[in-house]
User: Fold Putative amino acid aldolase or racemase from Ruegeria atlantica.
Amino acid sequence: MNAAALKALSNALRSHGVDKPVVVVDLDLLDANCVVANRVADAGLARRLVAKSLPCLPLLDFIRERISTSGLMTFSEPMLQALLTVEPDTDHLIGKPLPVSTAARLLTTNPDAARRVQWLIDKPVRLGEYLALASDRQTSLRLSLELDIGLHRGGMNSQNVAKLAQQIAAHPYGQLAGVMGYEAHLAKLPGILRNRAARASADAFNTAVAALPRDEDGLCLNTGGSLTFQSYLAEGSANEVAFGSVLVKPGDFDHATTQAFDPAAFIATPVLKVMPGNALPGLEFLPRHKTDIAIFGGHFLAQPAYPAAFSYSAVFGRSSNQEVWTGPRSADVSPGDIALLRPDQSEAVLNQFGTILAVRGGQVVGEWPCLPN
Assistant:
């Protein structure tokens, strides 16, 4: 968004009556981002939305009306519980290994989770725990194997896949659902290392897929993320890519691979105080040609975007109460104006305040409840 568009959004939110911090999503920009995602993702690959990055059911619905998806990647018990309750058919690939006690609770409250959830297994010990749970419940559990394909944040080496897949197949209540390999490191490495790491990652994923039983049809072979999903083709070993954050494009997702996407989410919060020429504590005798503003709340995982040319105060430091920003003396800003920040990430930020304001055509068109973290 350019400065004029940010000012127009701020004015619209003030007219709407925003009087506390809230997340805002611009549906026009989100719409355009969905068009880009459909264009750059290989049409032969399934697309799975990452729910933690888009933690609001109306937001997910808006996107799913525009992007055909195979299901959601879900990361927490509260969010999975909420989604299992309201959506009877959505397939969930768990994005991180959950303690087996969490799975036991979810199966107690939602027995249908056995059919709809792919539980992520990162090591032999966890596999044993989940197979024991399946035996105890006499319920078949869908188990997907987490692969370490270069990120080195846990998961199993591709060389161990065949053994664990055989162990699942031999168990009366074990069902191999697929594999998941995350490779967020690829987009962050310098060019001199990136090509080599990409080849190693692809080799590891291919080796793991080749080790899966040949008689297993319909396996979920998931990889990718918001910075890398564009690089996969249906001719490869993966049949599904995952992404989410790029559709609202927080600051951490500014990258060469995402230049076609626009930031679509903001934190909005009222300006409480405007202090032109504000003196520095202890240095009141020095003239100061700056304006300080104090906003409602603060210490958000976000960067100031509006009013233009304002940034966090190096004098007052970060604050969760009345965070101070510093900008030009000539700034046109008044108490009650709405300050805007661009989130660094969408995960744990979009649902921070419980509600998302949906904006289209410069007007608030909906107040959407968020999912729990």
Notes: The longest strand covers residues 265-276.
